[in-house]
Design brief:
single chain, mainly alpha, about 0% strand
Length: about 170
């Protein structure tokens, strides 16, 4: 384009045409190279996808073979028994940890003066220009309100085992 501009300034019309044709040809070649590059990238991407899909398919074959072997050797009754034992131990642990939390809460609350804690909360809220709202008033002194637990509906063990076994056998 610089040569074209120079030729126009020198009133060289034939040279200007030649430079203009060269510039257009070079631009078209650049666009064609860009198109070709894009097509090559697309083909490469498709090849990579096909290779990945082949790898995933082979992996899936291996996993399904392994699952079939595992399912064939699995004792459903033994698994159900282990799961029931686990659930029972989990419930026992939940009860014990709840008792420990209550004990820790009451011990911590009695060791920390409630009026000092409430005073600090109000002081920080006042400094920050915040309103405490009803939530803080409902709680009362520190550690006196314990979150309520929802009641759990317990299914008889025998019925639960039979239902699971029937579902697995279907």
């Amino acid at each position: 384009k610089v040569k074209l501009k120079k030729a126009i300034q020198q009133q060289n019309t034939e040279g200007a045409r030649i430079y203009a044709q060269d510039a257009i040809r070079e631009k078209n070649q650049a666009l064609n190279c860009l198109r070709l590059s894009s097509r090559i990238d697309a083909v490469g991407s498709r090849l990579e996808t096909a290779i990945r899909m082949n790898t995933v398919t082979n992996s899936m074959k291996g996993v399904t073979k392994g699952m079939a072997k595992s399912l064939a050797s699995m004792n459903v009754e033994q698994v159900a028994t282990v799961m029931d034992n686990f659930e029972q131990q989990f419930e026992d642990m939940d009860v014990k940890s709840g008792y420990m939390e209550n004990a820790m809460t009451s011990t911590t609350a009695s060791a920390t003066p409630a009026d000092q804690v409430d005073g600090l909360i109000h002081m920080v809220a006042d400094e920050a220009g915040l309103e405490l709202g009803d939530a803080f008033e409902e709680i009362g002194p520190v550690g006196n309100k314990v979150p309520e637990k929802k009641e759990e509906v317990k299914v008889p063990e025998k019925a639960g085992l039979e239902a699971r076994l029937a579902a697995l056998q279907r």
